[in-house]
Amino acid sequence: MPPKNKKDVMPVITALKKLYPEHIIPLHHQNAWQLLMAVILSAQCTDARVNTITPHLFKKYPTPQALAAANIQEVEEIIHSAGFYHSKALSLIESSKRICEVFDGEVPQNMKDLLSLRGVARKTANVMLGDYFKKPEGIVVDTHVKRLAFRLGFTKQTDPVKVEQDLTRLIPYEYWVWIAIALILHGRNVCNARKPACSGCALSALCPKNGVKVSA
Question: Which residues contact 37 (CB under 8 A, 6 or more apart)?
Fold first, then answer.
């Protein structure tokens, strides 16, 4: 049976807390703007790859003002290995411009303003609000979170916005920031897309394994 309320989901939270007790942001950054740029770069790209790109990017363009004035071809060359580099370079430059021109050089701290930046959708905005500013307005939903939320019976939805709505209804607010990182790490380490390691999973007894066809 899928969990119906916050109390029902606590056994899963407790089990995940034992596995992933700390909240760690895997993208290297020194300030809010750097994290925002890194998250934009991370779309369909590994965190490890982004962390190899950003040192060069931030050395050449250390501030939003510097990146806003950058030559797009030079930015594309730096971020080429992140994939979709044409679109990402434009997003990095245009979002930096808007931060400078509209928000006085500071990354905005609310959902509406964050969503006005090029390359920023709810997932990126939730990372900034929750992981960096510590005032979450939702839960980050990436491919791992969406997959595990479905397998665990937390949602029957496939649209990330609807998945997020189901998760925010079920997950107590104090866990909103941590739960995404925990599910992402569990998705990478154990509950992978093609062949989840169900036999060695600490959540196995709590998981209905929705949609799981092959497991190890």
Answer: 54, 57, 58, 67, 92, 95, 96
Catalytic residue status for 142: yes
* Count of domains forming the chain: 2
123, 131, 146, 166: the catalytic one is: 123
**20-62 per-position pLDDT tens digit:** 998 889 999 999 999 999 999 999 999 999 999 999 999 999 9
Catalytic residue among 8, 47, 113, 142: 142
Q: Range of 114's domain?
A: 32-132
Tell me the CATH number at 79: 1.10.340.30
Rounded to two decimals, the pTM is: 0.89
Q: Is residue 101 part of a domain?
A: yes
Same domain, 128 and 163: no
What is the distance between the alpha carbons of residues 212 and 214, in angstroms, rounded to a whole number? 6
Amino acid code (one letter) for 74: E
Helix or strand holding residue 9 (H, E)? helix 6-19
Is residue 89 a part of any domain in this protein?
A: yes
